[in-house]
């Protein structure tokens, strides 16, 4: 009886082992078949010149963040492909018509584009930025800060606080302390002097309260002045701070009435049009930045990484990208509608994004 039970258990374990082996063989065969199927398929990949995401080197080879990302994805998924260089408008049109299977570039994900073709998962988050010309600040701009509203407001508030405590100390002391005596104006002036000396911790000691009320006011003022002086000093310093560079364009609102350059069919053109801001079309980012350097336009609005990279190539210190982003964006690869390899591409994309290679790739181009 015991022998029969052991034999049954052994048979069950053997059957489970065989089942597991068959499942593994089936899975391996499926993966090999899928890889072979992918290798048998050659997809059409549209690319556009958009440094640092896609551009041609001196030897004519395509390189950049998006190009290297796609090459790693294709190697991982075992996909064959051919590259077709296109302009931005041509690439968007080819994806819409299904003339290319994939669009490899820094394409911004938008509702309008999603209505015409699909996207992979996003591979980067960025945003629109403004590039404009800056000029060194002169002594006249520095002098004007002394008459600016922020400086006058900070100085006026400080004088008001000093006067208030000077008036209090005079009220308690002028009848019992000759140091705050004389006419009303002289006494209040002495109180103001004591208030200023106490706050700045100069400590001349020529005037000091003698009454109980005056000493209580003095004690309160000594501790309060420690906090107040630091706050007012920061406010005054901030109002007098002058950037070494000045620019007329400082925010999105300043673009109204300015001469603005954008790329044709770009997400920046759509955004500015929705904001009611007029602009001029340019075919390439380099031509737009060149127009900015020559003074033909006041600002260029485009994706922040591309703007910074283009200014880096121009090596023009009078052009800068403003630090504030005017709209967040996500970059992805475009896909023609009903692309059968969509899930395969997304898995390959995520595999690269969660690897150390991706961090090194970003640092190599953007830092």
Automatic annotation (TrEMBL):
The keyword Zinc does not apply. Its main location: membrane. It is a multi-pass membrane protein. It is found in: Membrane. Gene3D superfamilies: 1.10.287.70, Periplasmic binding protein-like II. Coiled coil: none annotated. Keywords: Glycoprotein, Ion channel, Ion transport, Membrane, Receptor, Transmembrane, Transmembrane helix, Transport. Residues 42-360 form the Ionotropic glutamate receptor C-terminal domain. Residues 42-367 form the Solute-binding protein family 3/N-terminal domain. The keyword Kinase does not apply. The chain crosses the membrane at residues 151-172, 184-204, 216-242. It comes from the Bacteria. InterPro entries: Ionotropic_Glu_rcpt (IPR015683), Iontro_rcpt_C (IPR001320), Solute-binding_3/MltF_N (IPR001638). This is Transporter substrate-binding domain-containing protein. It comes from Thalassobacterium sedimentorum.
């Amino acid at each position: 009886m015991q022998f029969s039970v052991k034999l049954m258990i052994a048979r069950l374990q053997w059957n489970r082992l065989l089942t597991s082996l068959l499942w593994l063989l089936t899975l391996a065969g499926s993966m090999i078949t899928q890889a072979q199927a992918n290798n048998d398929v050659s997809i059409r990949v549209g690319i556009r010149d958009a440094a640092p995401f896609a551009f041609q080197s001196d030897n004519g080879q395509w390189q950049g963040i998006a190009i290297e990302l796609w090459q790693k994805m294709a190697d991982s998924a075992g996909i064959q492909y051919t590259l077709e260089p296109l302009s931005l408008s041509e690439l968007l049109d080819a994806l819409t018509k299904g003339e290319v299977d994939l669009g490899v570039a820094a394409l911004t994900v938008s509702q309008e584009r999603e209505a015409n073709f699909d996207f992979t998962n996003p591979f980067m988050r960025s945003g629109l930025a403004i590039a404009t010309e800056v000029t060194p600040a002169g002594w006249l701009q520095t002098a004007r800060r002394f008459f600016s509203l922020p400086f006058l407001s900070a100085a006026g508030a400080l004088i008001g606080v000093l006067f208030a405590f000077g008036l209090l100390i005079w009220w308690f002391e002028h009848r019992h302390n000759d140091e705050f005596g004389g006419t009303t104006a002289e006494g209040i002036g002495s109180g103001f002097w004591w208030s200023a000396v106490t706050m700045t911790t100069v400590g001349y000691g020529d005037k000091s309260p003698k009454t109980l009320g005056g000493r209580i006011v003095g004690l309160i003022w000594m501790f309060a002045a420690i906090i107040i002086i630091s706050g007012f000093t920061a406010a005054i310093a901030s109002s007098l701070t002058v950037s070494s560079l000045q620019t007329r364009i400082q925010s999105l609102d300043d673009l109204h009435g300015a001469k603005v350059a954008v790329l044709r069919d770009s997400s920046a053109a759509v955004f500015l049009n929705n904001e009611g801001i007029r602009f001029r079309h340019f075919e390439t980012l380099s031509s737009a930045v060149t127009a900015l350097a020559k003074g033909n336009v006041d600002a260029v609005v485009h994706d922040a990484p591309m703007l910074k990279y283009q200014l880096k190539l121009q090596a023009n210190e009078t052009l800068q990208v403003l630090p504030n982003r005017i709209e967040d964006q996500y970059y992805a690869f475009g896909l023609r509608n009903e692309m059968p390899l969509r899930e395969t591409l997304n898995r390959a994309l995520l595999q690269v994004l969660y690897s150390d290679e991706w961090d090194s790739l970003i640092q190599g181009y953007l830092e």
